[in-house]
Design a protein that fits this description.
Blueprint: E1 7-8, E2 21-25, H1 26-32, E3 40-42, E4 45-52, E5 55-59, E6 62-66, E7 70-74, E8 79-82, E9 89-95, E10 124-126, H2 129-146, H3 153-169, H4 176-184, H5 186-198, H6 205-212, H7 216-226, H8 231-247, H9 254-260, H10 266-277, H11 281-286
Parallel strand pairs: 1-3
Antiparallel strand pairs: 2-9, 3-8, 4-7, 4-9, 5-6, 5-8, 7-10
Helix pairs in contact: 2-3, 6-7, 9-10
Length: 290
Amino acid sequence: MHGAFPRLDIGTLSEYREDHIMIARFSDYRHEHQSLVFPHRHSFYHLVLFTEGRGPHTIDFHRFQAEPFQVYFMIPGQVHSWDFDEELEGYVVNFSDSFFKSFLLQPEYLDSFSFFDQDSSNNVVTLSENIRARVSGLFEELLSQNERATAWRDDIVRVLLLQIFLLIEQSDSVDRKKSAEKSKNPTVRNFIRLIDKHYDRLRLPGQYAEMLNVTPNHLNALCKEHVGRQAGELIRNRIVLEAKRLLINLDLTVSQIAYKLNFSDNSYFTKFFRKETGMTPEDFRKSPAI
């Protein structure tokens, strides 16, 4: 493991230094960015469809075995790495958080898809056989459109990406129950979105309930009904996730991480982390999970 992991922007990964979209074949992308085997996080959405080859891939400490016709959906901020011994082929698309917002009336539209999720166990989808050819064809069309310098290019790319997302979301490739749960209740969706913005400052369900104009009891009941967890647990899980992401950066001390997460002192952070994970921050740094 390296001493630090970088936060990458699209411009650093694009031949054309564009800051909103990048599309490439996976073999070309991997060849040009061979250093990306170490843990790193993106400031953009990162989408990969594998069509050939196999190998281990990790997203936020969940380890997966990449194989043909798996799609990996990663959202901004997630930490991931791969360790591929063999040649893999497929497609990779990077796009900024703002790429769709100027195009869609609903700015948070992407959040409605089950695979664009903070829980990395939902980020990997194996395509059902009946849509594989169609999805691959849409990725080929993305590559083709990306090479054209036309006034409508970006809008065509947006439409093609939305076709891919909708096709996968409505297919047998995704867990119907998880998909329905994510789109079912707007209050829970907004709560999770608020946690992602304020987890380092707001720790109590009541603080979020006030922002959502509901009572703490009602918010808790909605969370238990729709995601099977209490509101406080969702907040704590997000804090733990960010703590883990920071802990793999060995350039940061545990005390510095505690400060970044707004814990009053190192001992309080250590006590919190141990209660939630069963290990100390130092033990986590030594574990195979990273």
